[in-house]
Design goal:
The chain is mainly alpha-helical. 84% of the residues lie in helices and 0% in strands.
């Protein structure tokens, strides 16, 4: 406790200012914590979406490889059929 009575109002004013600043800081820290929690949720959701996309891309890659193999087989069959037709009489059955 201050011994000088004239310093007490100043000390009380400083105490109020300190308490006001502390209260404001607590409120702002609460906002930052809330925002951080929201960011963590978003990062978690994005991580899950990236994982899902990775699985989809892998699946699409497998489908493309399968289609490519099918196209190669069809092209080979077409070449074989065309090769058989070369030299044949179109009127002959």
């Amino acid at each position: 406790m201050l011994e000088d009575p004239s310093a007490q109002p100043g000390a009380a004013a400083l105490t109020r200012r300190f308490e006001d600043v502390a209260e404001r800081l607590d409120w702002e820290i609460g906002i930052v914590k809330s925002d951080l929690a929201a960011v963590r949720l978003q990062v978690g959701n994005l991580d899950q979406k990236v994982g899902n996309l990775d699985a989809k891309v892998t699946g699409l890659g497998e489908e493309v490889r399968g289609l490519s193999e099918k196209i190669d087989r069809n092209q080979a069959q077409i070449v074989e059929l065309l090769t058989r037709l070369v030299g044949r009489n179109p009127d002959a059955s």
